[in-house]
Amino acid sequence: MHERPFALPFDPAGIVLDRRRGLSQQLYQALRARVLDGRLGSGTRLPATRDLAVMLSLSRNSVVRAYDQLYAEGYIESRVGDGTYVSQLPKLSTQLSTGLSQGLSTGLSTICVSDTEDLSSSGRSGSAMERLKTHHLPPPRTGAPRAFRVGVPAFDLFPFQLWARLQAGFWRKPDAALLGYGDPAGEPLLRGLIAAYLRRSRGLACTAEQIVITSGAQEAISLCAQLLLQPGDEVAVENPGYRAAGHTFALAGACVRGVPVDEEGLDCERLAQLAECRLAYVTPAHQYPTGVTMSLARRLSLLDWAEQRNGWVIEDDYDGEYRYSGAPLAPLAALDRQGRVLYVGTFGKIAFPALRLGYLVLPQRLVQPFSQGRALAVRHSEIGNQHVMAQFMAQGHFQRHIRRMRKAALARRNVLKAGWPTGVPGLGDMPEVAAGLHVRVAVDNYAREQELVALAEAVGVEVNPLSSYWLEDSEVPVDKRAGLVLGFAAVPEAQIADALMRVRKAWRT
């Protein structure tokens, strides 16, 4: 029998909802806040959805939606025949507070003050050239997308005519005030709209002043590497993970340490064993490339680690908008009350990568140093796409496009799932895909992985080997690194079905 710690009964007092706004979202936020601040302790039994609906004079559907989101994010758990309880959460060495820390890390202040001296005295430019040779990153696949390219959304659904009309409207008679040197952090209008979108859709409380516009997510990661690291610093990255991030940190002179990923995400116990590490890069919403979602317990442990180490967490939310049941999960940064998380967002997975438009959401104390750092690197961003994206968002096109893209990605995922070949030696079944734009499929061993990839390529189908996402010095045996990574959003359903037919024939033959 499942033992439960003693917990006070649920008390709905204090839950006040504004009937003019979304009730399920307000209820979710109220219950979530009570779990995080301890008013709803681990093991507290929650009322049945019907009973809570009566207590709060809500429809049962509103309560069900709120509970569903809390389930998805790990705040509550269901026990068959026994009801709904607050999940068992880790005991943290520091509680999540309600205010930002006012201290500035010595690492960042040193870099900002003495960067020129470090460059001249340590010979970083020469050593960077050597690091570039050592950490060569293969170029991304180019050309028109085909099945099953990873990392690209449905280009065919983007409203290019609308975008061209907005673009033409801006350049027909641009405001002269916008044609000079702009704000290094980006256009204020776009930053404000991004902040409003994140507050409304992702539960991330932030202001326009905390946002820095970048030329895609990769520049955001590079900016973090330049301003948060000094040569010799340790950086933790997921293993397997997004190799381009690891290469960026290595190029900045960091010692990149791979931390294993399991079914709950980054292994925080292994992270804690890195005694000198003060920076961790993670993809918690949909881990790249395994696709797992970081559990709430791991998220809280990671934030606790950052607070204890006086460190930083870079959260790359590259495809967080794509969730196929319920609302997108709240990002790790939404839990951060100590100002330790730098949130990386991009328009590349909603629009197209060639747009080169991303952003950073920074803790308040990092805004000025990052704006200054970007001013030194590129002065400021190109104005046209920023202004057009601002209009695209302000006129409601952005949210409509997200809904269209999410629906299309779900349909394309379903075609892949339905047509996935079975009975192929060494190839696993298609797993459930609850979020994101790609999926990982198991393969028995490395040799079979390489064979399946080569056979697919021979019939014009792109399949990525999971083994290529691991660090070279990984402790995990080569055969344990095997698998396939497939994107399912890049091409329409008919092309997916055709590609499946070709690989079924190639792999079975």
TrEMBL record:
Protein name per the record: GntR family transcriptional regulator
Gene Ontology MF annotations: DNA binding; DNA-binding transcription factor activity; pyridoxal phosphate binding
Transmembrane found in the keyword field: no
Record-linked InterPro entries: Aminotransferase_I/II_large (IPR004839), HTH_trans_reg/aminotransferase (IPR051446), PyrdxlP-dep_Trfase (IPR015424), PyrdxlP-dep_Trfase_major (IPR015421), Tscrpt_reg_HTH_GntR (IPR000524), WH-like_DNA-bd_sf (IPR036388), WH_DNA-bd_sf (IPR036390)
Protein source organism: Pseudomonas putida (Arthrobacter siderocapsulatus)
Annotated family: In the C-terminal section; belongs to the class-I pyridoxal-phosphate-dependent aminotransferase family.
SMART domains named in the record: HTH_GNTR (SM00345)
Keywords: DNA-binding, Pyridoxal phosphate, Transcription, Transcription regulation
Domain HTH gntR-type: 21-89
